[in-house]
Design brief:
Strand content: 15-25%
Shape: globular
Structural class: alpha/beta
Radius of gyration: 16 Å
Number of domains: 1
InterPro entries: Pyrv_Knase_C_sf
Number of helices: 6
CATH class: Alpha Beta
CATH architecture: 3-Layer(aba) Sandwich
Largest sheet: 7 strands, mixed
Length: 194
């Protein structure tokens, strides 16, 4: 049996980023985890994590793919990408594992896909950051940026601004083996989805 603490934030959003970073840094001290995967749309959250963890661990920053909001445009700031690399992290551009191609069919023909139901369930039952954490764990493993081992994933609630408010320890899985994915520990998450 193990007893672990979970930090619950009163509200979701970017105001929790520094606290999440401290929680992740503390969890890394246990020595059993080598990979930290962080979601970052513009790169600002990625830089924050790279400044603290870029030389301590295999730090992978997952961005949205170019065209997520505007066709042909990547929202990630190229200056942030350079900073992250200089600080020892790496940036991966990847299609969202829990929407991707299926979202095109939903938008064109209506209805909803299995992946979108899963994504909405994770957001509703736990938090948007939990959904993001699961998704970026898959994306990092699919891209080859991490190996199949215990990993910390960090997500946030995009609707309330950028930043991190959720951290999980997971055993990731590839897209084609999704049901092998396991959330092992919840390190931090918000109480609310606001």
């Amino acid at each position: 049996m193990a007893t672990k603490s979970i930090t619950y934030f009163e509200h979701s959003g970017s105001g929790n980023t520094e606290a999440v970073l401290a929680i992740v840094d503390e969890r890394l001290k246990e020595g059993d985890i080598k990979n930290v995967v962080v979601a970052s749309t513009s790169g600002a959250t990625g830089v924050t994590f790279a400044q603290a963890l870029g030389k301590k661990t295999n730090l992978v920053i997952i961005s949205t793919k170019p065209g997520s909001k505007t066709p042909g445009v990547w929202e990630f700031d190229p200056a942030n990408e350079k900073k992250i690399k200089r600080l020892g992290g790496r940036v991966i551009r990847h299609t969202h594992a829990l929407s991707g191609l299926e979202k095109s069919f939903t938008e064109r023909f209506s209805g909803i896909s299995h992946s979108e139901i899963l994504a909405e369930s994770l957001k509703t039952l736990f938090s948007p950051g939990t959904k993001v954490g699961v998704e970026i764990g898959i994306m990092a493993l699919d891209s080859g940026a991490i190996t199949l081992e215990k990993t910390i994933v960090v997500g946030g609630t995009g609707a309330t601004g950028r930043g991190a408010d959720t951290a999980l320890v997971v055993l990731p899985a590839h897209t084609n083996n999704f049901f092998d994915f396991h959330v092992l520990e919840i390190l931090a998450k918000p109480f609310t989805k606001d």
